[in-house]
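2024-03-11 09:14:02 INFO worker-7 job=invfold-0412 stage=load source=structure_tokens
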């Protein structure tokens, strides 16, 4: 459904993408997790045909993106970080506008269906500019899928939303995947990465690892120890040989240490995705 093969892209001295390969299957929510500047938006721009990369190839919905960018655009939904809703149109008008671009004959029926599917009925006649951030983001998502695309690209769809709104946006993302769409979603929230079927950890333009959240954690446990030091001071823990990372956590200190180290008095804990990321980015530096 989505296949990227060794994509590279530089902006002057900056290597935004450095040989990125990945696949997203139909029915799957695939997360692209990485800090600011990792290259997430650049990859989405390449995969949606907005930006032609320096190197590598990409296929989306059976088409090679660089060769047929216009046909690709009709088959995908794309919600960018910049909110793409028109504030001075109503919710319904926004949906109609988008649907008409791709499937003019069915536009009215598609807009009605999206209003229902996304629970936007009560706001159909409200101006988009009057919606709260959470509902506007819901509209942005509805707009991206109103023409029933096979592949959906969502660039940080929950940035700036409160936890409850984020939760409901994630429910909708999974609803679209359950309907058969291949969904690629970028995020820098570690808890959101846990909600993906599979994910790739992107750092400085490179995929450090890819897999299900469970696979990534299992891989990290093979390579390092994840520990908690109750009542310890940060300085004391950081000073011990073999400690790769340490940070304050509740009544003690959390740390990542080399596998071969014997650290008596420490409790072994299950790594989170944040721990996995901390370990891999440390190794990559
Ligand atoms: N058009 C551009 N011109 C110059 N540099 C760019 C351009 N677009 C991206 N970059 C640089 O490429 C790198 C990757 O940027 P990108 O926006 O893809 O990262 P990101 O992972 O999406 O970050 P964020 O989470 O902040 O959106 C950054 O160093 C950025 O400054």
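2024-03-11 09:14:09 INFO worker-7 stage=emit residues=285
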């Amino acid at each position: 459904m989505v296949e990227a093969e060794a994509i590279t892209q530089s902006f002057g001295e900056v290597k935004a993408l450095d040989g990125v390969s990945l696949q997203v299957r139909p029915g799957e929510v695939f997360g692209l997790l990485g800090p600011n500047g990792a290259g997430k938006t650049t990859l989405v721009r390449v995969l949606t045909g907005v930006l032609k990369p320096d190197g590598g190839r990409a296929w989306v919905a059976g088409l090679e993106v660089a060769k047929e960018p216009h046909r690709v655009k009709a088959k995908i939904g794309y919600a960018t970080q910049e909110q793409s809703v028109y504030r001075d149109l109503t919710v319904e008008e926004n949906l109609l506008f988008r649907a008409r671009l791709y499937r003019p004959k069915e536009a009215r029926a598609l807009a009605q269906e999206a209003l229902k599917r996304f629970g936007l009925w009560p706001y159909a006649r409200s101006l988009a500019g009057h919606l709260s951030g959470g509902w506007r983001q819901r509209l942005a998502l509805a707009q991206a899928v109103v023409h029933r695309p096979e592949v959906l690209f969502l660039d940080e769809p929950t940035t700036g939303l409160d936890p409850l709104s984020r939760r409901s946006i994630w429910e909708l993302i999974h609803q679209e995947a359950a309907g058969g769409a291949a969904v690629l979603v970028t995020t820098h929230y570690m808890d959101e990465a846990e909600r993906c079927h599979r994910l790739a950890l992107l750092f400085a333009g490179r995929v450090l690892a890819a897999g299900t959240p469970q696979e990534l954690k299992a891989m990290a446990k093979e390579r390092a120890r994840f520990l908690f030091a109750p009542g310890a001071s940060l300085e004391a823990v950081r000073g011990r040989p073999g400690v790769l990372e340490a940070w304050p956590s509740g009544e003690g200190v959390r740390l990542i240490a080399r596998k071969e180290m014997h650290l008596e008095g420490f409790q072994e804990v299950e790594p989170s995705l944040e721990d996995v990321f901390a370990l891999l980015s440390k190794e990559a530096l």
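2024-03-11 09:14:09 INFO worker-7 stage=report msg="The chain has two domains: 2-211, 216-284."
2024-03-11 09:14:10 INFO worker-7 job finished
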